[in-house]
Design goal:
Blueprint (H helix, E strand, L loop, with lengths): L12 H19 L8 H8 L13 E4 L2 E4 L15 H19 L1 E6 L10 E7 L5 E3 L5 E7 L4 H9 L1 H9 L4 E7 L8 H15 L3 H10 L6 H10 L4 H10 L2 H13 L8 E4 L2 E3 L4 H12 L5
Parallel strand pairs: 3-9, 6-7
Antiparallel strand pairs: 1-2, 3-4, 5-7, 6-8, 8-9
Length: 301
C-alpha cells in the first residue's frame, strides 16, 4: 500500500497569517478604544465648540469652568481645556477686578444716629462701591456711598441742598470719596428714572457723567429718549454712540445697583447715604456731617 505524501506548506502562508493577525488587532483597537482617545472632531461633536463664548453642553455633560464635563459634581475635573481666546481672558480679568472690589471695598451696614452718646448698631448686610462713579480722593479715610433716584423727591432735594455742602466741606478737601449709585427698578412709573440712570452711565463712557447727572437732577420728570438726546447734544457727546448706548447698554448695571441697594436695606422712594457702612437716612446735611465727623475722629468704626 502506497504511503500518502505529507502536504508541504506554502512559502507564502506565514506572511499572510501575520498580516491577518495585525488586521484583527487594529480592528479590535478601533472598536474598543477608550473615550479619552477620541479625535478632535469627535470631541468637538461630543462637547461642542470649546472656544465658543456661548458654549452649550449636551446631557450628560454640564458647563464647568468654560468646558463641558461629566455631570457628577461641580468640582469634577474635565479633560477639555477651557477657552483661551482673548474674549475669555478679558472676562476673567473683569471678574478678578470685580471680585477685588467686592472683597476689599465693602463695609458692613450699621445704623447711625446724631443723638449724643449714641452707639452704632449692626443692621446686617454689606455695601460696596462696585464700579460706580467716584468723586474725590481715592485714598480718603471716609467713603460716602449714595443710593439715589433721579425722580424721588428726597433725592432731588439732597442734590440741591446736601450734595453742595458735602462736596465743599469733605470731597474737595480730600476727606471723603463720594460714590454715586442708582436705586431704581425698570417697572411701572420708574421707567423714566431707569432710562435716566442709563443715560448717565452712557455719558460716563464719554467722560461726562457728572455733567449729565447735573442736567438730570435739574430737569426731573423729563426723561424721554428725545430729551435725553438733547442733554447729550448739549454736552457735546458723540450722538451715534450715545443713542446706541441708550438703547442697548447699562440695563444690567443699573439693575445690579438696585439689587445691591435692597441687600443693604434700601427702601423704595427713599434716599440713603452709607458712611464707611454707617447708614444715614436724612433730609439735612447736619446728621450726615455728624456721622462723617464721628468716623473721621474714630468715634465710630
Amino acid at each position: 500500500m502506497a504511503k500518502r505524501q505529507k502536504k508541504k506548506s506554502s512559502p507564502h502562508s506565514l506572511p499572510m497569517m501575520t498580516i491577518g493577525i495585525v488586521i484583527l488587532v487594529v480592528v479590535f483597537i478601533l472598536i474598543y478604544q477608550s473615550p479619552g482617545s477620541t479625535s478632535p472632531g469627535e470631541k468637538e461633536e461630543m462637547y461642542g465648540n470649546t472656544q465658543s463664548d456661548s458654549l452649550e453642553c449636551v446631557s450628560p455633560y454640564i458647563l464647568v469652568n468654560g468646558a463641558c464635563c461629566p455631570d457628577m459634581n461641580e468640582d469634577s475635573m474635565c479633560d477639555v481645556a477651557p477657552p483661551s481666546d482673548a474674549a475669555f481672558e478679558e472676562k476673567m480679568i473683569d471678574y478678578e477686578e470685580e471680585f477685588h472690589l467686592a472683597s476689599v471695598e465693602t463695609f458692613p451696614v450699621k445704623s447711625a444716629s446724631s443723638l449724643p452718646g449714641s452707639v452704632a448698631v449692626s443692621l446686617g448686610g454689606w455695601v460696596g462701591i462696585d464700579d460706580d462713579p467716584q468723586l474725590g480722593n481715592p485714598d480718603a479715610p471716609v467713603t460716602v456711598i449714595e443710593f439715589s433716584n433721579y425722580e424721588c423727591v428726597p433725592c432731588v432735594d439732597a442734590y440741591k441742598h446736601i450734595f453742595p455742602a458735602l462736596k465743599k466741606n469733605y470731597i474737595d478737601t480730600g476727606k471723603v470719596l463720594y460714590v454715586a449709585r442708582d436705586y431704581v427698578y425698570e417697572t411701572g412709573t420708574s421707567q423714566g428714572a431707569f432710562r435716566a440712570a442709563i443715560a448717565a452711565n452712557c455719558a460716563r463712557e464719554q467722560g461726562k457723567y457728572w455733567e449729565m447727572r447735573d442736567l438730570l437732577f435739574e430737569n426731573t420728570k423729563h426723561f424721554s429718549p428725545a430729551t435725553l438726546s438733547i442733554h447729550a447734544k448739549a454736552l457735546g457727546l458723540d450722538m451715534t454712540k450715545f443713542r446706541y448706548c441708550l438703547d442697548d447698554g447699562y440695563r444690567q448695571e443699573v439693575s445690579d445697583d438696585y439689587q445691591d441697594g435692597k441687600a443693604a436695606g434700601m427702601k423704595a422712594g427713599t434716599l440713603a447715604y452709607y458712611v464707611n457702612g454707617f447708614k444715614v437716612l436724612t433730609s439735612s446735611f447736619d446728621q450726615l456731617n455728624v456721622t462723617i465727623d464721628n468716623v473721621l475722629t474714630g468715634k465710630w468704626s
